[in-house]
Amino acid sequence: MELEPIQNRIFEIRGYKVMLDFHLAEMYQVETKNLNLSVRRNIKRFPPDFMFQLSQDEWENLRLQIETSSWGGRRYFPYAVTELGATMLSTVLRSDVAIETSILIVRAFVAVRQLILNPPVNEVKELQNGMKELKQYIEDVFTDYNDINEDTRLQLELINETLAELQTKNKALNKPRNPIGFAAPQYKQ
């Protein structure tokens, strides 16, 4: 049996990662009623953080996620078995299949936990982050460019003002002067 089919049967309910009793019974190759009977005979080994029964709302919400919508006409809602409870099942069910299945189930729970703690690298997310960084860099460059342009504009305005003052002084200095002395009158002919 591979881990992936087991991982696909792990759900989150009440903050626990759990598997349902009928999925476990299928993997342990026993009937669901026999699995639950073994649990009831050893109920002290299964506190609420090991195993609990689903409420009607939890079951209705979960049925949408499960491949089959039929749950076999049971009179009660399924039990959810946590990783700890799945480990405890191997002590209650004593067959070789139960031992091998328990090992696989524990490995599947550990793999799911590792996936949560270290999610796989998402290339699209990396590209989005790269684009955000590039966009921020370009905005910073243009901001710097605009600041340089503003500084340049101020310098050009100062140069233009200085040139205008120099031109005014130059006109004042090059103004035609009144001739010194007497000028001979010019006659028109």
Describe, in plain words, how this protein is organized in 3D.
- The protein has 7 helices and 4 strands; from the N terminus they run αββααβαβααα.
- It has 189 residues and is α+β, with helices and mostly antiparallel strands.
- It folds into 2 domains: 115 residues, Roll (Mlu1-box Binding Protein, DNA-binding Domain), CATH 3.10.260; 54 residues.
- The chain has a 4-stranded antiparallel β-sheet with strand order 1-2-4-3.
Condensed summary:
The chain has helices at residues 3-7, 21-28, 32-41, 56-63, 83-92, 96-117, 123-173, and strands at 11-13, 16-20, 51-53, 79-82. The chain is an alpha+beta fold and 189 residues long.
Provide tags for this entry:
189 residues; 4 strands; Mlu1-box Binding Protein, DNA-binding Domain; 8% strand; alpha+beta; four-stranded antiparallel β-sheet
